[in-house]
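histidine kinase
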Amino acid sequence: MSSSYSGDLDPAVFEEMVEAVGVGVAIYDAEGVFRYVNAAYADLLETTRDDLVGRPVWSVATELEADRFDDYWDSFSEGETRAADTEHAVGERTVPVSTVTTRRRIDGTPYNFGTIRDRSELRARERELEAQNERLDTFAGIVAHDLRNPLNVAHSYLELLRADGDSDELEMIDSALSRMEILIDDLLTLAREGEMVGEPEPASLATVAHDAWSTVETGDADLTVAADAAVVADPRRLRQLFENLFRNAVEHGSTSPRTQAPDDAVEHGDRSVSVRVDTIDHGFVVADDGPGLPEGDRDWLFEPGESGDPDGSGIGLAIVAEIAKAHGWSVTAADREGDDTGARFVFEGVEFAD
């Protein structure tokens, strides 16, 4: 122990406890000199404890500078703890690490106690995610461009039809095309910005729900908003959330490829589904009386590719989950209450406007 320790600190204080903690531990003094390191600290840097003890801390911790160490030391208050992500280097070895440093006194003398953990795997994962996000951003831009081209063609033909006279049907087509453009923008935002929403504001559940219902092909299905309330949300994202839930209920009967519901129960247009929006304590519920959900854990329903969209995209419920998370809400899929079949999507943690 004496070969890896110098100064007035009693090695016996650290031998049993510090050597067994499983992370790198080092202690340095007001001069910035390592007075103690454990084996895990030295091993991480592929050196020896004897090589480190007596060295200045700035020769290892790359974020510290010799001529500014006194300012750094004086900035610490008694008992203060700081965390940082940085790099430690010895010779040719450089390791990304997470550090936690605490000021403590031993027999009246101040020391900084530091621990380090290797961040190499985390850094590699971060780089992988960055590359994946860049590819996703590129892909989303290409898809959006390719979707907008046929939309522009459709708008051109729509204008030609309007030259022969306007009608309610043409207005519905125009509304649907405009909504598709908004959805493309929303999907790009989800892909490029992740869990983001616009400025939250009071939004009427009834108004947003009925607006969303009007954009979904509902057939003979019907919507009931049992209780109206103003929730604090991004109205556009909330509308998209309702649209995806309504589409899921009407076009799937709240089923998915894994459900055990009969085939004739999920054929579009072969049933009439009732959908109900209601409030609960700290949230709201969207329920339907369709065939219901599969047994067991339903969390997979919110995974991309698993929600069973009829167009094969599998992002309907995944987008619902993203929008809920962006607002700080939780969402769970459950059976409809009572003995009847059906599904309930429960949103909790919702803030209601006064």
